[in-house]
Specification:
about 210 residues, alpha+beta, Heat Shock Protein 90, 5-stranded mixed β-sheet, globular
Length: about 210
């Protein structure tokens, strides 16, 4: 005897809507910053074409690698896997790679500081931290007009990530698709993420992500 299972139509609709929201969020948080960084690099390469053709060629080669990485991220998104760089390099290595790409084409001095030892992290925590940091850095280089920026990572019962810059500061730190997405990623793991203006100028993003 064949059994029939009937799924309510409204349940299917909710599942499909949630799936669409997840895909859009991952595109915004993952592929979006990568493509924004490539766009900034292309602008720099265009400026170098006349003054430093060899430098422009090196930069274009690096951008080609980044585009391949973005393509890998899209494929991973389709397969619901982790971003390629996190899978390959781990959290600290992936953040360092993204920062190095930005540093090679921008005037913003970005440093990555790891305080103490970070234990092995669950995949979900590594991915969430990486996406939060990458979105924050993209905001810094796109909107903050900063000269310096520092990424800090440390572990104290939970993973902590900070992105601090000396830019113009955020006029509205509680709005925006990027900030809402960063907060959602943290809250899904039972953590928190906040963005606040710094005394004396600039912005500080702070995220805390528990491992369990």
């Amino acid at each position: 005897m064949r059994r029939q299972f009937i799924v309510p139509a409204d349940s299917c609709a909710r599942s499909a809507a949630e799936a669409r929201r997840t895909v859009l969020r991952d595109l915004h948080d993952g592929v979006g910053p990568s493509l924004a960084a490539v766009a900034l690099g292309l602008r720099s390469a265009r400026q170098l074409l006349t003054s430093d053709p060899a430098g422009a060629a090196r930069l274009l080669a690096a951008l080609e690698d980044e585009m391949h990485s973005a393509i890998d991220d899209i494929r991973a998104l389709v397969a619901r896997e982790n971003p390629a760089s996190v899978t390959k390099l781990g959290l600290v290595g992936a953040v360092g790679e993204f920062v190095a790409a930005l540093r090679s084409r921008l005037r913003v001095a970005i440093d990555v500081v790891v305080l103490g030892e970070i234990p092995p992290l669950p995949d979900a925590v590594s991915v969430a931290a990486y996406q939060i940091i990458r979105e924050a850095l993209t905001n810094v280089v796109t909107h903050a007009d900063a000269r310096t920026c520092q990424v800090r990572l440390w572990f104290d019962a939970e993973l902590h990530a900070e992105v601090v810059d000396d830019g113009v500061g955020a006029a509205e730190v509680s709005t925006g698709v990027g900030l809402a997405s960063m907060r959602r990623r943290a809250s899904e793991l039972g953590g928190n993420c906040r963005v606040e203006p710094r005394h004396g100028g600039g912005t500080r993003l702070a995220a805390a992500l528990p491992l369990s």
